[in-house]
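Hi L.,

You mentioned the student needs an example of a multi-chain input paired with its predicted structure. This one should do, with 230 residues in total across all chains.
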Amino acid sequence: DTGVSQDPRHKITKRGQNVTFRCDPISEHNRLYWYRQTLGQGPEFLTYFQNEAQLEKSRLLSDRFSAERPKGSFSTLEIQRTEQGDSAMYLCASSPSTVTDTQYFGPGTRLTVL
Amino acid sequence: AQSVTQLGSHVSVSEGALVLLRCNYSSSVPPYLFWYVQYPNQGLQLLLKYTSAATLVKGINGFEAEFKKSETSFHLTKPSAHMSDAAEYFCAVSDQEETSYDKVIFGPGTSLSVIP
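Structure written out for the whole complex:
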């Protein structure tokens, strides 16, 4: 049973550096979501894809953030010119097709910006 | 706009006691409602979901939740707490009020501790 995987699990970077995270969804899941979770908070929606199309982006997603899902398979989330406020857990989830379908979450990538 | 509030950021119960985690939502249209659990160092896992069928929803691990439209609530309960229930619990809501695209809004979470 292959669930959602994320790589890397942990990333420590210096302020101003660029970082890229990868998410591999459950195969044949059309929808892929990115969330950010800070300590003591619930996941905050960042963006989501229906196949390769990015359908919505949160206002939390500044111009320094970009996400792609080429060919509707894996997805990448890039943060340019990282800031200390970007330190958080970045979660990826996938689901078959509609909002009532269960979202399956990956283990997350913990980003620490020094 | 959709929003979720969870009363009590930390709840402690004795092993064998009733678990009650509160969730209230704000939505102008009938919502979909979810409870997720996050065990330490693990990803979020769906406990149960309400999608406009039966108002009493049964989930995994003995949990259930009741949708009460008049109270805009979706409280999570379990008759008897087990040590393994210690985790972070998130209530979430989704509707199509603002856009034609679906998204899920999570509450801030409630940390459940179970005392032996």
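You could point out the following to them. Chain B touches chain A at residues 4, 9, 32, 36, 41-46, 49, 51, 90, 92, 94, 96, 99, 101-109 (CB under 8 Å). Chain B has a mean pLDDT of 89.

Best wishes,
N.
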